[in-house]
Automatic annotation (TrEMBL):
Protein's organism: Candidatus Defluviibacterium haderslevense
Residue span(s) of domain CAAX prenyl protease 2/Lysostaphin resistance protein A-like: 126-215
Molecular function GO labels: endopeptidase activity; metallopeptidase activity
Any Pfam family hit: Rce1-like
Ranges that cross the membrane: 20-42, 48-66, 86-109, 121-143, 155-173, 179-199, 250-270
Descriptive protein name: CPBP family intramembrane metalloprotease
Length: 282
């Protein structure tokens, strides 16, 4: 296929600048969705609407960038495959295992308790929690497809993991997250999602992990007590300042452990696959 002059210029553009432009457009799209589209619908549908239209925006932006590359969605594995549902299900299982691992460490090495919530939980709440699927999907499209692959092709998997982790944290900070929380949460989990994407050659598996972690945090009250919580991780009444500080330290060390394991797994994968990772696609 003959490339147009503007396509040739675009192809030689820095992947970092391409990715930054992609993410800026994605954030701007989310801003427009939040301001102009979400208010049209009932409040209880806000997360669904935000996620669905955010996913549409992510797909649309990706389509434009992919066309500028003179390629197709298939080149970036953004197509439905026979193993897509299987990979998504595997991601859910991995996410649940990781979450239970973290909760187990918190309960074992701190004074924190896992107690039943007073909420009267019903099946309708599961439906509303499903909004996390389009919300997670839009982020995986934006951070683990076109930008991820372009960076990986030029700079390799190791640098791509670090760059996308910083970008993913920055994205959450722009959306109002506390800087330390963004660095200890999304930045760390970006390594897990990126590893899942490169190993499975697609975004179904990391989307499954993403969904499981977010729903699990609500179910276990890890994002604060909410109506979706079945259990609550809480400090016992009358806990000393030292006990509370110890819980915070265990929580921090747990997050660092996840980061260390994810970096180790990244390095293990790189060493195991000494073939040119820059030329691999998802």
């Amino acid at each position: 296929m003959t490339l147009k002059f503007n396509q040739i210029k675009w192809i030689h553009f820095s992947p970092i600048l391409k990715s930054l432009l992609f993410w800026i457009l994605f954030l701007f799209s989310l801003f427009l969705i939040g301001v102009f589209i979400c208010p049209i619908f009932p409040t209880q549908w806000e997360r669904f609407i935000y996620g669905i239209f955010g996913t549409i925006a992510a797909i649309g932006i990706t389509w434009v960038f992919v066309k500028w590359e003179g390629k197709s969605f298939r080149d970036y594995n953004l197509v439905w495959k026979r193993n897509t549902l299987l990979n998504f299900s595997m991601g859910l299982v991995i996410g649940v295992i990781l979450l239970l691992f973290i909760i187990g460490l918190l309960v074992l090495f701190s004074d924190i308790e896992l107690v039943a919530s007073i909420n009267k939980w019903n099946i309708a709440q599961l439906f509303w929690m499903l909004a996390i699927i389009p919300l997670a999907l839009m982020e995986e499209i934006a951070f683990r497809s076109y930008p991820f692959l372009e960076l990986n092709h030029r700079y390799g998997f190791r640098l791509t993991q670090w760059f996308v982790a910083i970008a993913f944290a920055s994205y959450h900070i722009v959306q109002g997250w506390n800087i330390s929380i963004a660095l200890l949460g999304p930045a760390i989990w970006a390594f897990v999602f990126g590893l899942g994407a490169i190993v499975s050659r697609g975004i179904a598996l990391p989307t499954g992990i993403h969904v499981a972690l977010n729903i699990g945090q609500q179910v276990f009250g890890m994002q604060g007590e909410n109506s979706n919580a079945i259990w609550i991780l809480k400090q016992p009444e009358g806990s000393s300042a030292e006990a509370i500080a110890r819980t915070d330290q265990v929580g921090l060390l747990t997050q660092i452990l996840v980061l260390v394991l994810a970096i180790w797994a990244t390095e293990f994968y790189i060493r195991k696959n000494q073939l040119n990772l820059k030329d691999s696609s998802l």
